[in-house]
Specification:
mainly alpha; 85% helix
């Protein structure tokens, strides 16, 4: 019996590793495509126009959050944990029809409020039509997100990656046409996004209808809405502490500084796109499927620690080369963005750990805890942005972002431990953080003593070579971690 469980565990680890590799490969490819937009905008557009594009993208995220209403997250809870094919069909059909209703409401609200929203965000008239176009873009994007969630829960990573790549390719293509071919500035970028998401949204909508169907259960719809509305509210609150700081920078500093802030965050988000989101994409259905097995708490604790080791190692590499990356991607007027990158990476690490720990919320169906978490982060962000951004400018917004994400992690940890206790290796996780601090000092030393250029790049490569040794010596990685790494590579 013990041998059987060990074999099943090894097989599960290998499948999780394979799916993570597929998701990671797809996300890295999509991220590479999206990275093309950074030099395209940062070299072809002045900071003011890039800032405007950033604000429209932020608005799109908010409308998409309201349109999706947490349905793409909720479907995991009920589809994965319900093995009856008939009831699974009802889950998919009901989710599709409920999101169709929430999307219509979000679109109507976005169009009705387009003119005043444009005036409030940009402090000038004339943005109403582009705000309405952004609302439609958000609704179309939410459709493709629901389809991609279905691909995830059906454990179809290749199809997910193909869809993700198609989304990125059409978005990047639209941006290139708008900026380089039509020279249409930020209005062209906004309308190009609409065209791109219309193409992908319609295609994924057809696939979604074919695979989800229209089976509907009024009783399940009521249960779904009770489960989903706290997630939607939590996502809106997460938007406040995760993205609304750009509005504060625009209001209290300048639109050009929004561009500096956005560029630094885009480099930090490479970590999320290239590793954090792929890992979480593969991990969530895996965790939900084995949540009630006796060994789950121990297995999950090690999984979270391994995640932290890998994400910290990746963030250290990006952090060490932040100056060189910004210099390669943007014109000199954006060089100040290099000072934003370390903090954006820290925010990404905090977000990733909180996301992994929060799986307990879905397992226990206590989605109201997500509201408490989001409220804590949103209140911290708003209070600190109002207090610091008018006085300190961009550094105040950065401090608010880091502090609010730290609060979110602390509250998430506490609430989830109450509902589903897991014995995390807290000491090992703190040691990983200590290694990151060591590398902060090493990078400062190199940049203070070695002139920019090939010599600095080589010196930084040398200090990075010591990273695996430091992780092993500090006992952040043990023999079990190494054995599981070999299993992921198929050599166990």
């Amino acid at each position: 019996m013990t041998g059987s469980r060990a074999g099943d565990s090894g097989s599960a680890v290998r499948r999780l590793g394979r799916e993570t590799a597929v998701y990671s490969g797809g996300s890295i490819l999509a991220s590479a495509l999206n990275l093309l937009l950074i030099p395209l905008f940062a070299k072809s557009m002045p900071p003011h126009d890039y800032g405007v594009v950033t604000l429209y993208a932020t608005l799109q995220t908010l409308v998409e959050t309201l349109s999706g209403f947490g349905i793409s997250v909720s479907v995991f809870r009920y589809y994965v944990m319900d093995q009856d094919p008939g009831e699974r069909a009802e889950v998919l059909g009901t989710c599709l029809r409920v999101q169709a209703g929430t999307s219509l409401l979000a679109l109507l609200a976005g169009c009705a409020l387009a003119a005043p929203l444009g005036q409030a965000i940009f402090d000038e008239a004339g943005h109403g039509p582009l705000v309405a176009a952004t609302a439609l873009t958000a609704v179309l994007s939410a459709v493709s997100q629901l389809a991609m969630s279905l691909m995830r829960i059906q454990r179809r990573p290749e199809l997910f990656v193909a869809t993700q790549f198609a989304r990125s390719l059409t978005v990047v293509g639209a941006g290139i046409v708008a900026v380089l071919v039509l020279h249409a500035g930020y209005p062209g970028v906004v309308l190009g996004q609409l065209a791109a998401h219309a193409l992908v949204g319609c295609a994924t909508a057809v696939w979604l209808v074919r695979h989800a169907g229209f089976a509907f259960s009024r009783a399940f719809a009521a249960r779904l809405l009770r489960f989903a509305w706290p997630i939607c509210l939590a996502n809106v609150l997460a938007f406040v502490f995760g993205m609304a700081d750009g509005f504060f920078v625009n209001h209290y500093v300048s639109t050009a500084q929004v561009a500096i802030y956005a560029l630094g965050n885009r480099i930090g988000n490479i970590l999320q796109v290239g590793f954090i989101r792929p890992f979480c994409t593969a991990m969530v259905p895996h965790a939900m499927a084995v949540a009630f097995q006796p060994e789950f708490p121990q297995t999950f604790a090690r999984l979270v620690k391994q995640f932290l080791v890998l994400v910290t190692a990746a963030s250290i590499v990006l952090f060490v080369y932040a100056r060189e990356i910004i210099g390669a991607l943007a014109s000199p007027q954006y060089q100040a963005a290099a000072q934003v990158v370390p903090w954006a990476l820290l925010v990404s690490v905090l977000y990733g750990v909180a996301y992994n720990v929060s799986v307990a919320i879905n397992i226990t169906e206590r989605t109201q805890d997500a509201v408490s978490i989001g409220l804590a982060g949103a209140l911290t962000s708003l209070a600190l942005n109002f207090a610091l951004t008018p006085r300190l400018g961009l550094p105040g917004a950065i401090a608010a972002a880091v502090a609010s994400n730290a609060v979110v992690l602390a509250v998430t940890w506490r609430l989830c431990q109450r509902q589903l206790p897991v014995a995390y290796d807290a000491a090992g996780m703190w040691r990983v953080g200590g290694i990151a601090l060591v590398y902060a000092g090493l990078r400062s030393l190199v940049e203070a003593t070695v002139p920019p250029g090939a010599a600095a790049i080589a010196a930084k490569a040398l200090i990075l070579l010591a990273l695996p040794v430091m992780l092993r010596v500090a006992r952040a990685v043990d023999d079990v971690d190494l054995a599981q790494a070999r299993a992921l590579l198929g050599r166990a």
